[in-house]
Amino acid sequence: MKFKCEIEKITTLKKGAKLILSIPEEETISVLKNIYNFIDKPVTTEILIDTEKYKERMAQISEDQRKKIYAIIRDIANYYGDSLENTKENLKIEFIQNSQWEHFSLSNCSSELAGEFIDFLINFAFENGVPMSEHPFKRADDIERYLAACLRHGVCCICGQPGEVHHWDAIGMGRDRTSVDDSKNRKICLCRKHHSEAHTIGVKAFEEKYHVYGIAWEG
């Protein structure tokens, strides 16, 4: 028999794998009626992917992006003592006014828009001193935009404390930083604790430990 479904979850087992399928409501009865006839019997399956539908789905906001957006909005709402819904609408209006995007819904907007909205929300939180219940690094959708936001607002990208610019690409011993054009040199914003650690263990070990890196930033 043939039926449409979505792959809900894949679990790797010691002996093979467990595949959980999500079946449309209108097909459930028919599928179950046939499946029951083959319990404890070998079954051969053929999985055909609807590539166009898959591409369309991948281009839309992901559940992970949606969770990140609502988590940041909730922190902002709590900070200002406003409702989640009212805060969300006000932030969407401000985002639209300062971007190329028009009115959108978080239920079906594009993944690209969602990524830019997350970047906007993190910058808003930094600019207004909004404390976040989870480190913003875990909520960032684009690591490079997050690192740029930390540099722009003087926030340590590791712990969220006030930070200072750390030169990922060393300018060189004895050279005057004020007279050197370092606009193309990579930088990162770190607090004194993490700045000191980066110098102690070196940038390669620091990158491997925290999964961050320096970016070109003119300031």
Structural account:
The protein is built from 9 helices and 5 strands, in the order ββαααααααββααβ. Helix 3 (63-80) packs parallel to helix 5. The N and C termini lie far apart (62 Å). It is extended. The protein has 219 residues and is α+β, with helices and mostly antiparallel strands. The longest helix has 18 residues, at 63-80.
**What average pLDDT do the residues reach?**
85
User: What summary fits the major beta sheet?
Assistant: 3 strands, antiparallel
**Spatial order of strands in the largest sheet:** 3-4-5
Question: How many domains is the backbone divided into?
Answer: 3
Assign the structural class, choosing from mainly alpha, mainly beta, alpha/beta, alpha+beta, or little secondary structure: alpha+beta
**Which band does the percent of strand residues land in?**
5-15%
Taken from the alpha-carbon principal axes, the silhouette is extended
Low-confidence stretches: none
The SSE string, one letter per element, is: EEHHHHHHHEEHHE
Can you count the beta strands? 5
- Helix amount: 40-55%
Based on CA atoms alone, the radius of gyration comes out at 24 Å
Question: Helix segment count?
Answer: 9
Terminal residue distance: 62 Å
